[in-house]
Amino acid sequence: MAAPSECFSVGSRISCLTCLGQKIRGEVLAFDYQSKMLTLKCPSSSGRAHLSDVYLVNLALVKEVETLGESTEPPPALTALNVTKLTRRMNTEVGEKMSHAHALSMGVTPEGLQLFQTIQKTIKDCKWNEKNIIVMDEVTISPPYRMENCKGSEGNALVHVRKIVSFYIGTPHGSTTNY
Question: Superkingdom of the source (predicted)?
Answer without folding.
Answer: Eukaryota
